[in-house]
Specification:
By secondary structure, the chain is α+β, with helices and mostly antiparallel strands. It contains two helices and five strands. The protein has a single domain, classed as HIT-like (HIT family, subunit A), CATH 3.30.428. The protein is 20% helix and 21% strand. Bound molecules: adenosine monophosphate (AMP). Adenosine monophosphate binds next to loops.
Length: 114
Amino acid sequence: MASSDTIFGRILRGEIPCQEVYADDHCLAFRDVNPQAPVHVLVIPREPIPQLAEATSDHQALLGHLLLVAARVARQEGLESWRTVINSGTEAGQTVFHLHLHVIGGRPMAWPPG
Ligand code: AMP
């Protein structure tokens, strides 16, 4: 499945709604529909990269931008500590094959993750 055909592709195309918290020319950030913490935001690139495993050196600037946006969103949400997660691949827990960063915070976190 092309990642433009995922649910996140549909969100980017405005075909289904999201609770947007940040947007720019390169990415969109919106609240996770099934939050795992008081703050749970997803940051996705507009370019449909299916998973981190398929990113290339051409994406270096974009990947850096996504991390900076994750930090910006966390600050915007009032977080001083948070966790940024990228699941790459089914066994890692990835369910939507459009690259995304989870920004999770607002409660104490355990380690290691399950
Ligand atoms: P992952 O398991 O890393 O692929 O994360 C996918 C995330 O997308 C999960 O946390 C889901 O709750 C979230 N999700 C799925 N559909 C939607 C949606 N329509 N709006 C917001 N978040 C979604």
